[in-house]
Amino acid sequence: AAKGNGRNQYCYFTPIMQQDAHGRRQILRDLIVARDQQQFVLHYQPVVELATGRVHKAEALIRWTHPTMGMISPAAFIPVAEDSGIIVGMGDWVFRQATRQSALWRTAHHHDFQISVNVSPVQFMAEGLDHDEWLTHLQQLNLPGHSVVVEITERLLMDANVDVRNKLLAFRDAGIQVALDDFGTGYSSLSYLKKFDIDYIKIDQSFVSNLGPDTDDMALCEAIIVMAHRLGLKVIAEGVETEAQRDLLLRAGCDYGQGYLFSPPLAAEEFTAFLASSE
Ligand code: C2E
Ligand code: MG
Ligand code: MG
Ligand code: MG
């Protein structure tokens, strides 16, 4: 059930597995083995500038090929990794691996290439996320802070304590950018946009998938884009699958798009070829 990098890539057992306690225990047991045996890899999905088609950056997305069940969706195993605390080490690995890869692409292709990494709220709040170590790692790679985007969700900002604020501020001081992922699906409180220094809003794919002229989703996308621009933020639309969606978003002034229309998430070698062919 696990072939290719595109849609429908995950094994179909997972929606059932993640629901019951037994399934979660099995995932946890296998996750610990997976960590120790380094079964995780990162795939990279291009983020494209809508007006020009230029590849602006990539989002790193973790992939786990289970020895017997094939590819398992992060939507199934990230929650288990969060509950068990495994997410801290996993997220640390994602950050180091993604930035190492990005440094290679910056040297070989785009000198202003950016890499986005998803940071779970559990990971962000844990003592395990040592931002000093992250900054040291970037220095060792010779990467400027602004070459990295941290994708967080409203869930993190909702119960942001002093520790979270300080980490966000430390990232900002180092130039690291912040994207608000899945925007519109959480407890979207506009006060977050005022209180926190954010660079990108990512419009959730649920608003993009049914986009059409004169639809409610179109109205919502337009409103988000206008608001974001007035606040000085850039907008990325997630889950762009058709040219019609791309055109509507472009007309609404959306800055960037990400989705199967441009490319599914790719293995590193495939992404290198994609970058080379899009130059
Ligand atoms: P996300 O950060 O919102 O990532 C976007 C998801 O949309 C990815 O799913 C991507 O494969 C999928 N996608 C991209 N283009 C399209 C499209 O055109 N149509 C549709 N229907 N889907 C598209 P993926 O890779 O399965 O990841 C799911 C979620 O798991 C991510 O959502 C993120 O919340 C989490 N995740 C993935 N990798 C990591 C990671 O390294 N760390 C953490 N903490 N979370 C991760
Ligand atoms: Mg994301
Ligand atoms: Mg998202
Ligand atoms: Mg700002």
How would you describe the overall organization of this protein?
It is a single chain. The model is unreliable at 1-8 (pLDDT under 50). The chain has an eight-stranded mixed beta barrel, surrounded by six helices. The protein has 13 helices and ten strands. It has 279 residues and is an alpha/beta fold. One magnesium ion (MG) binds next to strand 6. This is Diguanylate cyclase. It is found in: Membrane. It comes from Pollutimonas subterranea.
In terms of topology, how is this protein built?
Blueprint: H1 14-17, H2 21-36, E1 40-49, E2 55-66, E3 70-72, H3 74-84, H4 86-108, E4 114-118, H5 121-125, H6 131-140, E5 148-152, H7 154-158, H8 162-173, E6 177-183, H9 191-195, E7 200-203, H10 205-208, H11 216-230, E8 234-237, H12 243-251, E9 256-257, E10 266-267, H13 268-277
Parallel strand pairs: 2-4, 4-5, 5-6, 6-7, 7-8, 8-9
Antiparallel strand pairs: 1-2, 1-9, 1-10, 2-3
The site of one magnesium ion (MG) has 3 residues, from loops.
Say which molecules are bound, naming each kind only once: ligand C2E, magnesium ion
Percent helix among the residues?
Answer: 40-55%
Principal-axes shape call: globular
**Structural category:** alpha/beta
Main sheet specs: 8 strands, mixed, barrel
Instruction: Report the count of strand segments.
Output: 10
Helices, by number, come to 13
Order of helices and strands: HHEEEHHEHHEHHEHEHHEHEEH
Domain EAL: 24-279
Protein name: Diguanylate cyclase
Subcellular location: Membrane
